[in-house]
Amino acid sequence: MQGIVTKIIPFSSVDGPGNRTAIFLQGCNLDCKYCHNPETRKRCINCGECVKNCPAGALSMENDQVHFDPTKCVSCDTCIKTCPHDSTPKASPMTAEAVFDIVKKQMPFIRGITVSGGECMLQPEFIRELFILAKDQGLGTLIDSNGTVPFGNYPELLEVTDGVMLDIKAFYDDEHKFVTGGSNREILENATYLGENGKLYEVRCVIAPDLYDCEKSVKATGEFLLPLYKHHPFRIKIIAYRPMGVRAEYSDMRVPTQDELSGYKDMLSEMGYEEIIII
Ligand code: SF4
Ligand code: SF4
User: Are strands 2-12 and 92-95 parallel, antiparallel or unpaired?
Assistant: First the structure.
């Protein structure tokens, strides 16, 4: 089995506890207005548009497929800025073994691996193969997910998964649809399922005041999750919208103030949550 891998970050300190290797998979089923890496949304359709724009000759067409030569790439990002299909020519099919060969180079220095995206749960069997290899070597395994794919359908994946970092991008479904283009019904069901099974490692709320009623949403999210938290505590991350990498039409929205973010943290603290991180 091969996964479509966007990139691998050998050392990351922001994708779960400790130092981790983060593996990003290509393709997503939501369309968040504030997505800061929209080039991960779609699979490349080999249209060739990026090839003629690459200033370093790192891209070519071979047998009607775009070919990326990392040795020539100067990381200018022209290809992802000019791709008309929210994709990147740098994503490539890889086996779990090939990905793990890269992970192994960091083995003495990392606590685990995190698979993210795009939406990595669109490739659950690939994650499972990768996690089996990681567990075999004593590494921790986390999934970073938008929660739209039912985890209950993949019990064998959860057996080799330490925890899930789950986005709840708006609590009320109409607002969630406006912010992300999709319903949050499955996401809330996933939160319940993962929480009840002790697999919810972290819940993230993105604060974008121009898009939805953040205060009402954070409050409702906190109240909804509290019974789960009492059985299996998890951490909550309050993430401020920032314009970096965001598509031009959504790049001038208001960035929340530190006071607003602290207010949400205080609100959740008063409910009983202990580990709340603002970023
Ligand atoms: S990355 Fe985008 S522009 Fe380049 S070939 Fe693929 S779809 Fe076309
Ligand atoms: S980032 Fe893209 S456009 Fe820039 S050199 Fe690398 S492959 Fe070419």
Answer: antiparallel
Q: DSSP 3-state assignment of 246?
A: coil
Q: Which ligand is nearest to the CA of 85?
A: 1
- Helix crossing, 214-231 with 258-271: angle to 10°? 40
> 3-class SS at 76?
coil
Q: For 184-208, write each residue's pLDDT tens digit.
A: 999 999 999 999 999 999 999 999 9
Domains in the chain, ordered, with CATH? Answer: 2-39+93-278 (3.20.20.70), 44-82 (3.30.70.20)
Specify the pTM: 0.94
Q: Is 141 in the pocket of ligand 1 (CB under 6 A)?
A: no
Asked if 159 and 134 count as a contact pair (C-beta separation under 8 A), the reply is: no
What angle separates helix 185-196 from helix 214-231, to the nearest 10 degrees? 30
Burial 32-48 (b: 16+ CB within 10 A, else e): bbbbebbbbbbebebee
Q: Is 217 helix (H, G, I), strand (E, B) or coil?
A: helix
To test ligand 1's pocket by mutation, which of 37, 83, 92 has the most ligand atoms within 8 angstroms of CB?
A: 83
